[in-house]
């Protein structure tokens, strides 16, 4: 029996002017779309305009930008976070989005595509791996990393090493799909107690 397709949200974490994030995000979304187990949405935080001041309680009426994005994150069965490394960590815009949607992440898997200088964004991913378990999320072991990212993509946004990049993406997606199905099935049987 063929398993149902998972809703995959690819989240572009940087909102900085001139950012590179849309390039690897579009590439990883295209790689996911080639598979038969994902329906893909790309969410660009630069187009969402989430407020950066959170209310005292998330039980109060939420700003329109927050309520507009909520259904996209709520329906996701799995996430790919595309993040740069700023000052040895991930951008504040990404943490802001994480904090607005505490319940949307619960009992769902998260994978990472990172880019940066020599470290390739891996310090940003390491920091994110410490945050998501606190939200009752599972982070998959393998990620896709682009150190010195300008050298890894051509002018059309294609990887310079398409085979190696596709192999890394496949490994990550295989793990994400496994966790996505396991956790989706579990949530369908019984609401997550966290």
From TrEMBL:
Domain named NADPH-dependent FMN reductase-like: residues: 7-149
Superkingdom field: Bacteria
Name of the featured protein: NAD(P)H-dependent oxidoreductase
Xref: Pfam families: FMN_red
InterPro entries: Flavoprotein-like_sf, FMN_Rdtase-like_dom, NAD(P)H-dep_reductase
């Amino acid at each position: 029996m063929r398993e149902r397709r998972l809703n995959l949200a690819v989240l572009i974490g940087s909102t900085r002017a001139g950012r590179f994030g849309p390039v690897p995000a579009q590439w990883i979304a295209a790689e996911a779309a080639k598979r038969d187990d994902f329906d893909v949405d790309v969410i660009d935080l630069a187009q969402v305009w989430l407020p950066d001041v959170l209310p005292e309680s998330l039980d109060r009426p939420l700003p329109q930008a927050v309520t507009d994005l909520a259904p996209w994150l709520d329906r996701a069965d799995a996430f790919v976070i595309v993040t740069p490394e700023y000052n040895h960590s991930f951008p504040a815009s990404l943490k802001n989005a994480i904090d607005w949607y505490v319940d949307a992440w619960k009992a769902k898997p998260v994978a990472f595509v990172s880019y940066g200088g020599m470290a390739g964004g891996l310090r940003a991913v390491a920091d994110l791996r410490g945050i998501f378990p606190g939200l009752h999320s599972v982070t998959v072991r393998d990620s896709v990393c682009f150190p010195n990212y300008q050298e890894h993509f051509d002018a059309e946004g294609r990887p310079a090493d398409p085979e190696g990049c596709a192999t890394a993406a496949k490994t990550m997606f295989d793990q994400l799909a496994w966790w996505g199905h396991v956790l989706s099935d579990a949530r369908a049987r019984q609401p997550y107690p966290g």
